[in-house]
Amino acid sequence: MEEDPSLTPAGKTKMGVCQFLLGRFGESLQTLRAADGSATALFYCARSLFELKDFDASIDTYEQAQKAGYNEDQCKIYVAESHRYAGRVEKAMLLLDDIFGPAEQTAEYMYQRAATVASIGGRRDEAITLYQRAVQTDENHAGALFGLAWENDRMGNDEEALKLYERAAKAF
């Protein structure tokens, strides 16, 4: 795809998503910005911006993706993540509190909520329960496995933490 000079804008979206999945975030962003402007292109632009630690730009781009028709709840979940990484934990929690229905049952939602609860502090049991629910929903959710490993590590459960860290590493 990268060598095809006649690649269509829709083809550039596919290529940009592939670059994202390969962890080539800068290239992905550049390709997606020259793509078809679809909701998918915008969403993966936002994901790339997040990975490049441009959290405010990722939030703006998730909102554009949502307006273009990308899944509203998924965009909100990742906007919350961007706010959390930018240090706006309370804002992240408010966004997560505003998500209802099937999205609340996804591993990604439970993971993001757990990570946000853990960032706030003082609610370790709630964070652990959410991480566990996320892993029950998706046994290979790397973030939830890592979060659960981290909490076990902090509580001195070294053997369980090591097992979970290993599972998280395999999932990444």
Order of helices and strands: HHHHHHHHHH
Largest sheet, strands/sense/barrel:
none
Question: What percent of residues adopt helix (DSSP H or I)?
Answer: over 70%
Q: How confident is the prediction overall: mean pLDDT?
A: 95
Termini separation comes to 25 Å
Our count of helices gives 10
Based on CA atoms alone, the radius of gyration comes out at 17 Å
Shape: globular
Q: Kindly estimate the percentage of residues that lie in beta strands according to DSSP.
A: under 5%
Number of beta-strand segments:
0
Note poorly predicted spans.
none
Backbone structural class: mainly alpha
Produce the secondary structure layout.
Blueprint: H1 9-21, H2 25-33, H3 39-51, H4 55-67, H5 72-85, H6 89-97, H7 107-120, H8 124-137, H9 142-154, H10 158-171
Helix pairs in contact: 1-2, 1-3, 2-3, 3-4, 4-5, 5-6, 5-7, 6-7, 7-8, 8-9, 9-10
Describe the protein's architecture and organization:
- This protein has 172 residues and is an all-alpha fold.
- Helix content is 73%, strand content 0%.
- The protein contains 10 helices and no strands.
- The protein has helices at 9-21, 25-33, 39-51, 55-67, 72-85, 89-97, 107-120, 124-137, 142-154, 158-171.
- Helix 5 (72-85) runs parallel beside helix 7 and helix 7 (107-120) packs antiparallel against helix 8.
- It is globular, with a radius of gyration of 17 Å.
- The chain starts with 8 loop residues before the first helix and ends with a helix.
- The model has no long low-confidence stretch (mean pLDDT 95).
